[in-house]
Amino acid sequence: MALPKIPETITVHLGRPNDPNARNVTVPFPYYIKNVASSEIYPTWPENAIRANVYAQVSFALNRIYTEWYRSQGYDFDITNSTAFDQAYVDGRDIFDNVSHIVDELFDDYLTRPGAVEPLFAQYCNGTTVTCEGLSQWGTVPLAQAGKTPYEILTSFYGNDLNIVQNAPVSPNIGSYPGYPIQFGDLSDAVRTVQLRLNRISNNYPAIPKIYPVNGAFDQSTVEAVKAFQKIFNLNQDGIVGKQTWYRIAYLYAAITKLAELSSEGVQLEDVAEIFPPFLQRGAKGEPVSTVQYYLSIIATFYNDLIPVKVDGDFGEQTEEAVKVFQEQFGLPVDGIVGKQTWDRMNEIYDDIRKTFPDWATGDSIPIFPRRLVEGMSGNDVKQVQTWLNTISKRYPEIQKLPVTGYFGSQTEADVLVAQDLFGLSPSGIVGPSTWDTLAQQAQRIQLNTEVAR
């Protein structure tokens, strides 16, 4: 999950959710709120009453979109116009002028609970013929007449533990699914989202094994948890999170945590904070930068016009210049920033080199980095890592000697974590290019010193 954003558009189902004959309309989000407000409240009400209602209507709609309440159940819309389920929307109706002006000011503001990031499911009813746990629309009028502010009106219904997020960013309404199946070996924030959600779902469905660590790496424990989830909910048990599995997980997570209820457990900020930046630029540091630097250095060996860079995890002036030269060489916008387009091209060229020259080694006789290695993988690349770790353990007893089986199990992961900590790498337990290179260099140095000492 990411932080909430205001959608450019919202798709409304003109009927009850399961009415197959009702049509969908897609309209700009501000217009949708104007229509709902004009359909549900009176323009003659005090302004502060109207404002309080608009805050609730915006927050209610955003909760439906953020939790993907309907789309996660297989529907092709974001919300209905049935007041038994959602908010009134009358297609083609006139909009009141004063309501329109207020919505233009407030459409990008919404309600949250302190410490939670999801828009509050701001349940409400008219307060006369229907009453409910949340806001009473008619009940806002006397409070406004008594001089209450919109916030004071809202807290009188939703409680004092209420925040108003203002000026939220606007973006296209494209849904949370990353657009491709995520699977064994992947490393991304989408993987971390799956891990977090499955761990919470497993509290209610203990047949789903816990995933640890939650680090965005699609390892064997993640595969097993996904398969267990798929088995319970009658999905294809392939251990891959395609669109159907993604949205089934999303639905169960929202339902179990009550995200679409006033009593929501709440999504915490640390659960939506990105651990893999969407782009890298000068000043960035860490494992993603090291990966870019490693790829640039390898590619520069095969393309003379490119600039090799030091793999130190620090996106400085030299790395920025190397990125610019790479972008110019391959017809990309030259800005020195590694965004999706630059990264995809870099990754594509590196993969071509690796597949064409699988036995190639650097000038230090270090084999070219093959692929990201995580727990559950097996093969000669894992054997190589285990061999290096065993050599390093001769000098660093913190690293436990392990059998060279070619299987990346928990003991191998533990050794990798210790090595990463020893050599100043990001402690992930994952063997990326900088970890691969560092293990090789350390093993070579220790082996050479051992031979000299003989």
Give the helix proportion (percent range).
Answer: 40-55%
Q: What is the makeup of the main sheet? A: 3 strands, mixed
Radius of gyration: 27 Å
Gross morphology is elongated
The CA-CA distance between the termini, in Å, is 57 Å
Q: Given the helix and strand composition, which structural class is it?
A: mainly alpha
Low-confidence stretches: none
Helix-strand pattern: EEEHHEHEEEHHEEHHHHHHHHHH
Number of strands: 9
SS summary, helix count: 15
The spatial strand order of the largest sheet comes to: 3-2-4
Strand content: 5-15%
Describe the overall structure.
The protein is mainly alpha-helical. 44% of the residues lie in helices and 6% in strands. It contains 15 helices and nine strands. The protein has helices spanning 29-40, 47-66, 97-106, 140-145, 150-158, 189-204, 220-232, 243-256, 269-272, 287-302, 317-329, 340-356, 380-393, 410-422, 433-453, and strands spanning 6-7, 9-13, 24-28, 79-80, 110-112, 124-125, 135-136, 163-165, 170-171. A three-stranded mixed sheet has the order 3-2-4. Strands 1-9 form a two-stranded parallel ribbon. Strands 5-8 form a two-stranded antiparallel sheet. The longest helix is centred in the C-terminal third of the chain and has 21 residues, at 433-453. The radius of gyration is 27 Å and the shape is elongated. The N and C termini lie far apart (57 Å). The relative contact order is 0.09.
